[in-house]
Fold each of these.
Amino acid sequence: MLMASPEGIGVRGLSVAFSGELAVRDASFAVAEGDAFGLVGESGSGKSTILRAIAGLVADWSGEIAIDGKKLGRKREAGFFRNVQMVFQDPYASLHPRHTVDRTLSEPLILHRFDRVEARIEAALEQVGLGPSFRFRYPHQLSGGQRQRVAIARALMLEPKILLLDEPTSALDVSVQAEVLNLLSDLRRERGLTYLLVSHDLPVVAHMCERIAVMQGGEIVEELAVEALRGGTGSTGLTPYTQSLITASRGYATQLEES
Amino acid sequence: MSALLTVEDLWVRFATRTGGTVEAVRGISFDVGRERLGIVGESGSGKSMTGRAILRLVRPPGVVSAKAITFDGTDLTSLGERQMRRIRGQRISMVMQDPKFSLNPVMTVGRQIEEAYRLHTGSSHREAAAKTMEMLDAVQIRDPERVAGLFPHEVSGGMGQRIMIAMMLAPGPELLIADEPTSALDVTVQMSVLNIMDRLVRDRGMGLVFISHDLNLVATFCDRILIMYAGRIVETCSADRLHEAEHPYTRGLLNALPDLETPRLALEALNRDPSWKEAPSVDGFS
């Protein structure tokens, strides 16, 4: 793929250690502005750790992380969060249980001294498909899918250009997952957002992204365009690990035939 | 095929604080033979409650009622708690989703398997120890002697789930109820756990009730499927024909799944028809 558009996210030689143990080893990839890039792998492969390192939630990292071509330091400044926001896996844990939707959405606006708070909250709720009636509800009065919509609305309040999505639908039922994925696709198209999506679910990543990096044991073992995943496990050039992920995503019997 | 277990008109109800009643399972009937029966549905469909109700594991304020739950000629609803305990674990076993919450954290896994086996069979220490090694070996744990001496926090999720299965299968149950047994596991480990259960059904003639939200997995792993919605069975089919299912709910679930091979701009949203809830439950007899 040609890198015509400017670089949204650039990661070079990123390593992250937890108490001396490397969780991510020498990871490099680039996401062009407006693209969606997926990180897939099993638990412990380091995919979420990369996301957390970019968001500034991990202390001990080395290498280079750049947003819009600007290298990031140890500390994230306020301007960073205007540009980059994160949506977490568990909508039951990522919203403050004693804050109303209104308070959850207004907090980033007040912190960053935005004007027209009222209008922005109403517009954000509208955009994620929740009516104004949801504005003064508490998280426990919402379903899992509605909570994830609130979490997405919160991430969009500061009008960022980049969203870091950490398994945004893996806690949801498939029908609700479809709605949230459709919402994310629409938002990207309308706003020209750049996505970095982490998931263990290969079909979900393939549906959302143009390019994918497969991770195993803290390393990126393969980076490929999503089309390369199609056409069965016979497609050339895939590592055995990527092939096993494709096979597993199809269910059980295929696994037996091929093993 | 003679049925191992026949469930007739099963209801699970919960009284709410406001004086109302929530019906989690609403009058379903089905049977299980020496086969792999899949129960699929979304959260709140009543699939887990169905599995628990068979073994009388629904906690108060939940109330289970049924015309009959017949296992090997005995109506389980007529049994006292003491008699039920002789069935539970010994003749009908259950494996749950997360081994972290099912194993005793302060006892080695070997001792837990031994204890469970001795309780159900009244065998000696020595027999139980030998059986433990045999079962750990059967679930493809490479170094059973070493693993038996480990505590649950020292084993991985996949190994923990295999240990749970070893424990549940040691007394040789005739029926295993597995509630999302592989959902917490990575795909590659998932396959080896399924393989183990598959062999037990084929080699020992065990019946398996496989409860899952994963349509693709159930379609490829099971023989027959019940699709549950709002506490009722909306459709049944043989597993290899799931993709020909007709009920709009089943179709909606299938179409909501992203598919690796056929890229689409948008996924189909499921429009729930209120009439699905009211339609009578379909019989799940084979």
Note: Chain A is about 35% helix and 25% strand.
Amino acid sequence: MAAESKLSHTAAMILQAIHAGHVYGFSIMEMTGLPSGTVYPALRRLERDDLIRSHWEQQSIADSEQRPPRKYYKLTRAGKATLESSHKRYPLLARLIPSPEARQV
Amino acid sequence: MRIRPFAPSKSVHLAILRCAALLVPAPRRSDWLAEWTSELWYVHQACLPPSGTSWQGDREVAAFCLGAFKDALCLRQTAPLRRPRKTPPLQSAAQCLGSLALLAFAALCLALVLPGARTAMQPSPYRDTRNLIMISGDRFSEASFPTIRASQFRSWRDRTQHLFTDFAFYQTTVKSLHIAPHSAPELSIARSSSNLFDLLGLPIQFVPANQSPNAGQRTLILSEKAFHTYFGSDPQTIGRVLKLGLLQVKVAGVLADESWRLPGKVDAWLLEPDDRAAAISSTTRGYVVARHNPSSDQAPSGESWRMSVHTPDGGSQDFHCDPLSNRINEPFGTFLFTLFLALLALPATTSLPLGEYPASPQNLSWSIKLRRWVFLSSKLVLILPLVYFGSLDLAHCSASIALPTIQLIQGISSFSALLFAFRWTLRDQRKRCPVCLRLLTNPARVGQPSRNFLAFNGTELICSGGHGLLHVPEISTSWFSTQRWLYLDPSWKSLFSDAHLASAGMV
């Protein structure tokens, strides 16, 4: 898989962050410590490669909490497969940003 | 929900994001900006205290906002390139004529801005220009330097003349004009006989009503530029007595800058009364202007000629007589001459036929046929002022160019531009659809050179409006000598867009 083999550590870390439940840009920034100028362009590239998918939060939910709606990111099936293979390449990734399953264990 | 900035710094952050959004491709801009402004709200919540300001927080928010530029550039670079539709310039008839008119107008505006070109376009400022003659030494027919001795001028003036009725003399020199105790600029002065302006018929501005400028004393006429530069256009200057070198002179008037077209760059004219003009050294060389006697038939009117006269020392000398009308009318005369030359050279440089068009094309109205010729004529008409003003601009682009060089530059540029423009006009006309006048597109090579005598070999072009095909032979033959237009019948209409057909008035 071309995307899998070319995934950088930063991209893999962002994928892992999304997988771990940090599903919007600022949250990913806070989790990974990466600057906005790195996180958002990486999100665009991952979405372009169909590894993640974005959707806007419902306006009614945001209005009820008196905040602007957020754009959420979610791993696609290809994104999950890529992340799993990235774990082999970057073994510490899962420990750096533990996923919900790992936290339960 | 909209984010309402409630602090100046937050407005600045929003402004940064909006600036960055300009880099994002338009289709994705609103979504991109919505995401970043939304995220900014959360960044504000996380980094800035609810009340007051935090230097560290502001820095973090600013760093976040600056990251938007990187994201925007990234999106811009990765966005699929939308290649703009390549439309040839001047494709439609209106575009072509509009561009030519615009260029001609720009050339005219430039000519009005350039002082030399503006002066050249104006009519003669002199009264009776046709009979005013510039006399110069025979070997210096286009003299831009003084060639006539003052003694020769006095000899002509004092002798009874049949050929000329009046003479005026001037010589240029540089003198200090003492305006104020510590202000004595050096001006280029034309020391001239008192009748110079009367002979030329030039009006002098600001002359006091009760005083003639030549009332028996030395008078000074300032150029408009010198009057403005050194006297601030103060009307009180007129009548003042100033010291010019060692001479006392009285400022008697101002001459408009465009009025002086004789050789020599002059800031002021010192008009010497007749009794004092005798003090000019006999060997001093200057310029002589004479008025030709219209009733005399000894010299051709309106043309240059040579005359042989006796010199004061008993010998004889030849002089060149050049009417001022030759100098004044030269720009347009040069243009007409180059137009004539270009029309002569045109058939030798390009083929003139516009192609073969079937006599009975389908449903072509007279207005469409006429429009094609009107278009060709309009192009030719617009080219003339464009080239005329353009060549004038080029010739007068620098104020330091001498008159013969100006004429040379104008002549060469005018001829070259006219020839090129006429060639372009014909070639452009041949490449246009006779119905909608748009440039033909999609040239395709047809046939092979080796089969020229058995089949058609050349280029085919098509009208994007579906009006027809143009066959241009590669080699002119007796059965296919020039390009041939083939009208397409209505069955082809379905292949072309309705918009083009509508623009041509065919549907």
Note: The mean pLDDT of chain B is 80.
Amino acid sequence: MSAEFLELRNIRKEFGSFVALKDVSLGVHKGELICFLGPSGCGKTTLLRIIAGLEVQSAGTIVQAGRDISRLPPMGRDYGIVFQSYALFPNLTVAENVAYGLVNRKMPRVEREARVKELLALVGMPDAGPKFPSQLSGGQQQRVAIARALATSPGLLLLDEPLSALDARVRVRLRGEIRSLQQRVGITTILVTHDQEEALSMADRIVVMKDGNIEQIGTPAEVYGRPATPFVADFVGKTNLLPATRSGSDRVQVGEQRFECPVADELANGAALRLFFRPEDVTVRGVNGATPNSAAAVVEKVEFLGAYSRITFRLNGIDQPLTADLSLNDMAEFHPKPGDTLRVAVPPDRLRVFEAA
Amino acid sequence: MSAILAGGMKQSVHWSDRVAHALLVVAGVALAVFLLAPLATILVKSAQDRAGEWVGLLNFADYFRTPALERSIWNSAWISTLVTAITIPLAFIFAYALTRSCMRFKTLLRNVALVPILAPSLLAAISFIFWFGNQGLLKALLGGNQIYGAPGIVISLVFATFPHALMILVTALSLTDARLSEAADALGTSASRKFWTITVPGAKYGLLSAAMVVFTYAISDFGIPKVIGGNFNMLATDIFKLVIGQQDFSKGAVVGIILLVPVAVTYVADRWVQKRQSALLSARSVPYVPRRSPGFDWAMTAYCVAISLLLLAVLLMAVYASFIKLWPYNFSMSLDHYRMGLVEAGMFGAYVNSVTLGFWCATLGAAFIFGVAYLLEKTRGLDTWRGFMRLMAVLPMGVPGMVLGLGYILFFVEASNPLHFIYGSMAILVVNTVVHYYTSSHLTAVTALKQIDNEFEYVSASLKVPFWRTFLRVTVPVCMPSMLDVSRYLFVNAMTTVSAVVFLYSPNTTLASVAIVNLDEAGDIGAAAAMATLIVVTSSFVCLVYYFLQAWLDRRTQSWRNA
């Protein structure tokens, strides 16, 4: 049998004639935090709801902890769930909310109270027990919702855009808290989000989805550094994507510029490709004529973004404007202004090519 | 083969869902037995002769060959149209004053205008007899004309329908977006042009809806034409005469179907209209805040005070007359009508019955309606059956009380019916009244439930908590205000209704509202006024109780409601 804690095999979902998920297969390791990332309509929430049994897949199998749960109703599955809206019971206190699932397990009162206390301490709200949800801030409510979901010690935690309703500061803080909580408890967790920063900072692995398909599964570093498709490259982080053709082994041609980079052997000479690199891969320090992949850039625009500045520039013979992120040190040394010419380079190992779709 | 399988993946059903399904089936069967079966019986009966032989459309042919009966169709039609034409403008101006002027005493005037809801419709008819009847105080004003017949019916119906139209129109007028009016001001639009190009189109659906409600009320009402109609026949009184007077069930069924048609058509049209209205107001709309305008405000105040005084004059006349020793010969005050006319005549039991009926409708009835609405909205599975039940839940509003009552008598009177035993009991009155007023209550419950996230149920399922626990611990407390509304609505209507129950009471279960009809028929109009007064006082008291209950609940729950 497979070693995966949760296994999705060939999941397909249709709503009438609309296909929300096309043959999705995925394994989730025990204890990891996996993130479903994608734009709205990509099917990530539908996939989560299928795992929860709130939607029924049109075809496919779900196996959790060695048990086929494909056809089980939500009550028969083993998970805790947290929604964007918190969905705390407004008429019950925080303690009663957290104890909601415990009462049904006929747990003795003393034991139950101890468990509630433990959970509230775990989410950093030891004194909130007697309060009502409406007396708490959004971030606090979401922590209570997490405590409630963890109360019954489920095998799987499902988080459906849990941070989207919160304001930016709280969101960043809660990200870290949820992640460390998840690691302490060691619970297998699926997080649905459309926020790439959230996914990059929290996940063990990211599942990037588009139009009901999985585009890439990988660690944050893999997804960011070695995107499998132009879509992933573009969706996660900032990107320069250029139309290119192969012009030799480890060489591609973009307009009048020639770039040195690793190219897979199966791509034929003259094949239509797309060249990818990130703005922060562009270097300016110590670049001279001998530096591989270097060229003279004409600066078009300089945007100050705090910790770094984004330069928009053009290369001779390429129609498309390109971007580079320069650190404050680089800026202090080169202080580029619109109209200036600057020698830039992209290290070959930072360049990636895709087959053009 | 695989294509068939692809669309056909189904979850196994959890045992707690099976409980929900079982409850839905029971509730659906109950609705079918107590709503569809009686209505179907009318259809069958209309195609049978007195001996129960199948005669097809013969009864209808007979009906249309009887000029006296056929005349009632015309009477019902023009009376209802006229009542609509009078009530709607009166109520619209009142609603306009409440929503668009800076008139003073708004709350007071509004409450006075809604008072007729607390009274049985017959009260108006009785009052107008005291004002303009043969021995009325202002009979001279009629200059030899009679109040009995069409004039009395029309004016009494206007009184009875006014608050119903007012409520709908106030809602419609408060839904208009203030930004339209501001934009018009910025373009220098005149007040009258704004009224015709913004206000009236904005309230269009409300106006249509109100007109349909008034028309339906007028054509279905039984009490008013019975008391003040004299020899003027309408469809509702015809049914009563044919069924109770002549025991001619077949012809009664024919008239029932004829009455059902316009009401059902109006109702379907109204549902269609309301569906369109929902899209009118977006979340970003800005509520209209009226600005001071002394001349207009004064005119509106004067109008509303005048209308309120007229409504009070009608209401208080019945109250006043109930304390008069012997109208019109001895105007000294006494409790004779209460003591001799009601208590000693053994009529007090009817009052107790009405309160009992109100109590059961407000408790069991409200609980049933809310429970069914919850099962329909928040549980899973059984989708086809669910759709069928939703349809049944909105059907009763399209059925006039007289027709429903007729269906009940035809269906349950048969000794072969296993449910025959409830015939003549309090139970049949409770069931009939709950079904009669099912739709409004159901829609109120559904609206309240829709405001609660479905995610409550999802979370509960993930925590392995069965739905009934969440229903009792969360849904009921959260929805309590709406449940109280439904409960009060059922209580008041049980106290005041005449139409459906007039067929169904037995000597032991006479109701106060029905007693008014009987007292009036026996010529004891003083006692009838006393009974009507008792009903108004009781309904008002009940509303007050609910008001304090609500206030107490608000205080108790404010710790968690929007803190």
Note: The first helix of chain A runs from residue 44 to 52.
